Amino acid sequence: MVLKSYDVLVEKVKALPEKKRVIVAAAGDEHTLEAVFNAVDEGIITPVLVGDKAKILDILGKMNREFDADSIYDVPDPVDAAAKTVELIREGKGDFIMKGKLETAQILKPVVNKETGLGQGRVMSHFVLNQLPNYHKLIVTTDGGMMTYPTLEQKKDIIENTVDTLKSLGYDCPKVACVAAVEKVNPKMPETVEADQLAQMNKNGEIKDCIVAGPISLDIALDKEVANIKGYDNEVAGDADVILVPNIQVGNVLGKSIVTIAGGKMAGFIVGAKVPIVLTSRGSSAEEKYLSLVLAAAAVAGK
């Protein structure tokens, strides 16, 4: 199965037999709560709120939202709220996490704690699912928000994180494009060397359950006609499910270009931990936050 649009994903999540539970860390944030309760209205999630209880209730009151005050975990300090959130996940009281009004480092610190955290022995990476106006299906970009300059082994982990997540969404064998500026290996361009190595790892079975191509340019990965013109014969060409970028700079620019220039939609979360972690930026739209909750709920449901 391949997802063609976010509408398809939303309907898929709405049809789930039970709502997924999101634990919101430091939930006293108006925009976060708006996104959460929009998803509640759609029958997608059940929220578990952790944070400054008085502030949370004040915001909910202004939103004319009713919520059982006794079910809010009153943890005013953001650092403590993050730790409590991870503790609740470990206790099985939630299915995934959403960051509220606290710094990303504050929520990730208890997540990566080797003794009490949510690590799985693999790097954590940022998974973003994009809907482009002129592409025939949803496409993942990774990693533009977590790993800065990943090593070859870390890129392998990122691919495996991404493939595992797509499989949970119903994909059988995702097509991964390791993008670079050129399609030929050039020792002076390390990203081309590593892209080729990743493709070879896939061919020899080190990277499983997907098809990896690289080095490959972005236009070839997305446009079969361009691939034909350039003589690039590969089943990923023009039909990529995943764009693996060489570093966070490329990923960040590509992601923002998709939204601000191409008019695309995006949603994402951190993968590689025991549960998805929704970390939207301060500039994220309400729709992006809502779709990120939908995406996380769908990924959890498919595990």
Could you explain the architecture of this structure?
The structure is a single chain. Helices cover 41% and strands 17% of the residues. It has 303 residues and is of the alpha/beta class. The chain has a 6-stranded mixed sheet with strand order 8-7-9-6-5-10, sandwiched between helices. The longest helix has 17 residues, at 152-168. The radius of gyration is 20 Å and the shape is globular. The model has no long low-confidence stretch (mean pLDDT 93).
What is the strand and helix layout of this fold?
Elements: H1 6-14, E1 20-25, H2 30-41, E2 45-51, H3 53-62, E3 73-74, H4 78-90, E4 96-99, H5 104-112, E5 125-131, E6 139-142, H6 152-168, E7 175-179, H7 190-203, E8 211-216, H8 218-222, H9 224-230, E9 242-244, H10 248-260, E10 265-271, E11 277-278, H11 286-301
Parallel strand pairs: 1-2, 1-4, 2-3, 4-11, 6-9, 7-8, 7-9
Antiparallel strand pairs: 5-6, 5-10
Shape: globular
Average residue pLDDT: 93
Strand order of the largest sheet: 8-7-9-6-5-10
Counting H and I runs of at least 4 residues, what is the number of helices?
11
Radius of gyration (CA) equals 20 Å
Overall strand count: 11
Helix content: 40-55%
> Oligomeric form of this entry?
single chain
